[in-house]
């Protein structure tokens, strides 16, 4: 049975609440923080920001400031334990609590039919009549660059990436290859 899902007050698909998100209203950003803390613990927000830049931010964008504010919020709610360094910069150090671990496990166990929100400036311009022959070479080069970055991540992590990260990276590689196919077709003036 699929659990009921309700949307935020403006029917935004950005903040979806489900039973596993509990009364604390955990957002996708909450789960990014919980997942990073679980993977790295102990973790500071700065360390999470660095890890996110080369990992999860490739598939889920969020301002790095949210890592700081959401970590503190999750600590107040009891999902992560926060400790301060005794001296120096007194950085905040987080560890997953049993409550946080249960919430993360419940969220991972849920299935979803939610798809990503496509926000592509090139496609938006194309939609409103940009010349595909002018737009395609620039878009093609951007997607080729992104594909190279994904492939380099794949090579550098060979044998070290957890299977879930490798599978997600493979999805990104496939996505970029499809964009390259699409923009290559438009580069020659072919209209669909």
Written overview of the protein:
By secondary structure, the chain is mainly α. It has 2 domains: 7-109, Arc Repressor Mutant, subunit A (Orthogonal Bundle), CATH 1.10.10.10; 121-187. It has helices at residues 28-40, 45-53, 64-77, 98-109, 121-127, 132-156, 163-187; strands at 6-7, 16-17, 80-84, 92-96. The strands form 2 sheets. Strands 1-2 form a two-stranded antiparallel ribbon. Strands 3-4 form a two-stranded antiparallel sheet. Strand 3 and strand 4 form a beta hairpin. It starts with 5 loop residues before the first strand and ends in a 5-residue tail after the last helix.
Summarize it:
With 192 residues, the chain is mainly alpha-helical.
The percent range for strand residues is 5-15%
Distance between the ends: 40 Å
Tally of domains: 2
Quickly give the structural class: mainly alpha
Helix content: 40-55%
Largest sheet: 2 strands, antiparallel
Shape: elongated
Radius of gyration: 20 Å
Count of beta strands: 4
Count of individual helical segments: 7
What top-tier CATH class of the largest domain fits best? Mainly Alpha
Spell out the helices and strands N to C.
Answer: EEHHHEEHHHH
Specify the CATH architecture of the largest domain.
Orthogonal Bundle
- Spans of at least 5 consecutive residues with low confidence: 1-23
């Amino acid at each position: 049975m699929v659990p009921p899902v309700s949307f935020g007050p403006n029917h935004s698909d950005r903040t979806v609440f489900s039973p596993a998100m509990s009364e604390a209203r955990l957002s996708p950003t909450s789960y990014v923080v919980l997942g990073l803390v679980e993977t790295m613990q102990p973790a500071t927000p700065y360390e999470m920001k660095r890890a996110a830049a080369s990992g999860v931010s490739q598939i889920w964008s969020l301002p790095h400031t949210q890592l700081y504010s959401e970590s503190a919020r999750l600590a107040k709610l009891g999902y992560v334990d926060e400790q301060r360094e005794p001296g120096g910069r007194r950085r905040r150090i987080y560890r997953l609590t049993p409550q946080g671990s249960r919430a993360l496990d419940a969220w991972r166990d849920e299935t979803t039919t939610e798809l990503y929100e496509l926000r592509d400036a090139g496609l938006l311009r194309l939609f409103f009549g940009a010349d595909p022959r002018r737009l395609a070479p620039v878009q093609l080069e951007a997607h080729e660059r992104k594909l190279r970055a994904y492939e380099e991540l794949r090579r550098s992590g060979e044998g070290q990436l957890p299977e879930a990260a490798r599978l997600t990276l493979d999805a990104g590689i496939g996505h970029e290859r499809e964009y390259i196919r699409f923009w290559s077709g438009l580069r020659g003036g072919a209209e669909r």
